[in-house]
């Protein structure tokens, strides 16, 4: 059976949920091979989990250099592995960086890249949701190895233990791959909540929240459900919360099981980033707010009374 | 410092967008067309850098005939000239082809920096800047919320999941910008008048030395096999809070087994 390369995302020694979803999706296409690209020592903490979720092989491409430059090294390594493994497909999770890696890999392999799939069939064709969810297209890569990015939460990750045989890959980077140097990575405040990209539930606040301190109302609801916290651009621009919490066209595009919008009007650029959420709940004091056109369940009211009650009620039901 | 801004004309996101059944491509005539919103920020950044460092701003677009309207608007904001890659054979080109064509067109212009938007509202790919950097073999400085140029060194702040990265490259580099970076200017009356006489060069595939069968729908690396309108979202329930709005949401979520 042909291999299917899965680019592994991890944070602090833990495999991201989106990677486990990819390993699950990969089984329909062939035999999953995980690809770990990172600084020396990255793979050790990840291999057990990768094997548990079906990685028959784990390519370990470790080098002190790969993380020192943006995107290009990973594309080069992925293309290099693909040229010998001749995989049936290459899968990455849909994040900004991974899409760039995937596109550059496809360029090098003279094949095609399909972005933001929500479904991958056994033949390698994909479904994508476009125009803010109004249209679903079925696409395929016309030549070469299909390189596909899959949206988080498109499939449910299930364990299916496999051998997880490690294959060491020697990394030698071209000069071109070293043209964008990472001078520093700055971590801005980050709590213990799930990351937006991966979360199956997201609670977002907008201008209606009114201030940074008031965001505790949004966080309270999020923590009661175990959700990630998001925001509209109005809230990130005002500096109430960091910009990486922005959901929307120029922020993160999410597709969680549940999206709760508190004090967000539902501008088209915000909708572009959350419209394909499975269930949408909105609280807004303006009955005319466009967010209600999308909402499966909406409450016209003041978020400062509705949200705390919701958080209390959820906590109570959890017992 | 000479700057090329990559600008794409896209259907207005406020209008209904459609694919055409004949070849499953975007119907670019069906709705109003505008400058891709984020590309206005790219143009603004180009103009700001020109004001600080001197040089010229050239707008480069690949798109159908009507993209000239958008080029004129970009020129009225203050760009100096424009290059329009225009050829019917380009219809249906995939991202990789588009990047290759843009790279070829860039070779006809003298530049130190390429600035693009981070994402087009029609394709929503966010990969053209990375692909252009790949095609040119230059630095990819994408997702910038801040750009600093010192001599031939270009440094950006790239927003990430957990904060930001500071990334540095040497010109000629490809930068893409997010909307946090600036506030685009409106064209002035003087700018609009001046734009009418600014040069727009049209390049065909022949001018770029590209064969027609290397581009377009037939050569696309990806194919849309079919499409369907997604069933409209079932109308939801909207209730007015009369003291139990929060509990009503909890009840709804519990019924759907979401909590
Ligand atoms: C190029 C570009 C890119 C953009 N990208 C994004 C993006 O990625 N993400 C994004 O979100 N936006 C984006 N925007 C901005 C977008 O157009 C909107 O301005 C923004 O989404 C508005 O945020 P909001 O809904 O929080 O604020 P508003 O539109 O001001 O809405 C606030 C809402 O809160 C309600 N409200 C107020 N007080 C209360 C209360 N006490 N209780 C309940 N409800 C209350 C009001 O009725 C109102 O509906 C972009 C814009 C541009 C031009
Ligand atoms: N046909 C095109 N002509 C010029 N620039 C383009 C074209 N397509 C994409 N771009 C640039 O690339 C950016 C990202 O586009 P995309 O990768 O399609 O989301 C846009 O914001 C533009 O700056």
Highlighted features:
A: 319 residues; alpha/beta; 9-stranded mixed beta sheet; 5-stranded parallel beta sheet; elongated; B: 259 residues; two-stranded antiparallel sheet; globular
Low-confidence stretches of chain B: none
The main sheet of chain B orders its strands as 11-10-9-12-8-1-6-7-13
Beta-strand content of chain A? 25-35%
Largest sheet of chain A: 9 strands, mixed
Mean pLDDT of chain A: 95
Total strand segments of chain B: 15
Give the termini separation of chain A.
48 Å
Largest sheet of chain B: 9 strands, mixed
Rounded radius of gyration of chain A (Å)? 21 Å
H/E order of the elements of chain B?
EEEEEHEHEHEHEEEEHEHHEEH
Strand content of chain B: 25-35%
| Strand adjacency order, main sheet of chain A | 9-8-7-10-6-1-4-5-11
Short description:
The complex is a heterodimer of chains A (319) and B (259). Chain A is an alpha/beta fold and 319 residues long.
What does this structure look like?
The complex is a heterodimer of chains A (319) and B (259). Chain A is an alpha/beta fold and 319 residues long. Chain A has nine helices and 17 strands. In chain A, strand 2 (10-11) and strand 3 form a beta hairpin. In chain A, helix 3 packs across helix 4 (96-109) and helix 5 runs parallel beside helix 9 (303-318). With 259 residues, chain B is an alpha/beta fold. Chain B is built from eight helices and 15 strands. Chain B has a nine-stranded mixed beta sheet with strand order 11-10-9-12-8-1-6-7-13, sandwiched between helices. In chain B, strands 2-5 form a two-stranded antiparallel ribbon. A two-stranded antiparallel ribbon of chain B has the order 3-4. Chain B is globular and about 65 Å long. The termini of chain B are far apart. At the A-B interface, helix 4, strand 7, strand 9, strand 12 and strand 16 of A face helix 3, helix 4, strand 9, strand 10 and strand 11 of B. Strand 9 of chain A pairs antiparallel with strand 14 (222-229) of chain B, so a sheet runs across the interface. Bound molecules: flavin-adenine dinucleotide and adenosine monophosphate (AMP). Flavin-adenine dinucleotide sits between chains A (206-208, 232-235, 246-251, 263-265, 267, 269-270, 273, 283-286, 289, 302-304) and B (37-38, 179).
